[in-house]
Amino acid sequence: MRLTTRSNLAIRTLMFCAVNDGRIVRKHEIADLCNASENHLAQVINTLAQKGFLDTQRGRCGGLRLARPMHRISVGAVLRAFEAGVPFAECFDPETSTCPLSAACRFRHALQTALDAFYAALDPVTLADLVTDNCALEALLRLPGTATVPPCPGRPMPEPAP
Predict the structure, then answer these.
(1) pLDDT one-digit tens code per residue, 81-91
(2) b/e string for 12-33 if b means 16 or more Cβ within 10 A?
(3) Which domains are delineated in the chain?
């Protein structure tokens, strides 16, 4: 099994926004740090916004941020949003399938069971599970000037605001 590039970019984009929570980020910042084409990323961001995972703002001070708390974004739901239109195998799309074995094949059922198990394993995983206390990810994706959130080893606790 292999995820589409769009699904992979969607998860990277959400992790980037989560690490830089509280700040509006720009598409070019994500593209630079996540090794992605801005044009391809624009399509992914559009879908994430349409599906309610991101809020976007146009204009000079525009950008994007998470549309809901990261603990309410399921990895399974994100992947479904991007993979649902792509049949897992030819026989999963009865309108375009040319497989001569469809009427007698048990392989499709086995694949469907595996796909259901795949999503069942990812549905309870949240964006927060991917980024919280992930110091290595934070070091890769944190933008300068964005407040850090403890507890990563070796990072001092922030001073409380006066």
Answers:
(1) 998 777 677 67
(2) bbbbbbbbbeeeebebebbbeb
(3) 5-87+126-141 (1.10.10.10)
Residue type at 96 in one-letter notation: T
CA distance 10 to 86: 15
Report the alpha-carbon distance of residue 138 to residue 111 in Å, rounded: 36
> How far is the C-alpha of 25 from the C-alpha of 146, rounded, in Å?
10
Alpha-carbon dihedral sign for residues 50, 79, 89, 94: negative
Contacts of 155 (CB under 8 A, 6+ apart): 135, 148
Contact 115, 79 (CB under 8 A): no
Predicted model pTM: 0.83
